[in-house]
Amino acid sequence: MHVMYNGDSNMDGSEIGIENSISSLLSEKLHAGTSINLSMCGCSNDRIYDTTMNYLQHVTPDFVVIGWTEPHRIQFYDATTYKFVELNEYEIRNENLTTNQQAHNDQIQDLMSSLSVYAYGQSLYWHNKIYNMHSYLNSRKIPHLFFNAIRLFYEEIVTEKYHFNWDNCYYQPYTENMREWGVKNNYTQITPGAYHFDRVAQEDYTEKLWNHIELHGLNIFEDRYTS
Question: Where residue 26 sits, what CATH number does that domain have?
Answer without folding.
Answer: 3.40.50.1110
